[in-house]
Amino acid sequence: MSARKSLRPRPAWVVGLVLICLVAAGAVAMSRGTFAILGGAAGAASTAEETEQPPTAVFVGDSYTAAEGGEGVRWTSLVAQEQGWRELNVGRGGTGWTVAVPADRCRYGTCPTYPEVAHEVVDLAPEIVVVAGGRNDRGNDVAAAAAETFATLREGLPDARIYAVSPFWDSTAYPAHLIAQGRDVREEVRRVGGEYLEVGHPLGGRPDLITQDGIHPNAAGYRALAEAVNEALDR
């Protein structure tokens, strides 16, 4: 009797219920599998994003680039932070396109001209180079030195973004010779496919942004320079 009962056909509603359960279970499994794949892909993308390094930017310049007088505030660091760059700073006080500082007066070990520093920059292999300065050159003709600097950078760093910043000045009237210098630098950086950042005179008429030496910016002054450079980069 029990054997015959086991062979008895199941009611239709039982069969239907079993089929519904099987379909539902399969849907849940497929759903879970899909979310696992998406989760894995998202996780991989997130990991890749986290391990991706920001581009390295080397800043070349004088005491303004080295941020003397800024109480630890650097316009270069503020710009790098805003732009998402990793900063390397080779600014050296007293230097310029045509001006070096003798070893016995150089606090940085060596204080060469910008054309000489350009070779050092190439060895660092950055993706970005920012050259700023010129106040120490006074009335010197910087065209040849600028041409050599940017030619060296472009030859050694063919894929790098190269920027030149118009010369900074303190809170006093902007000198005419810096306007002429800026024109020469602009022409030479553009010659190698670089970009000239015209930042104007952010410290002009603002002695409150200058330290007591009358030359170097204070912390607020360097923040003003950073804002001007970032605005020029974002144009």
TrEMBL record:
Residues 59-224 form the SGNH hydrolase-type esterase domain. It comes from the Bacteria. SUPFAM superfamilies: SGNH hydrolase (SSF52266). InterPro entries: SGNH_hydro (IPR013830), SGNH_hydro_sf (IPR036514). This is SGNH hydrolase-type esterase domain-containing protein. It comes from Georgenia daeguensis.
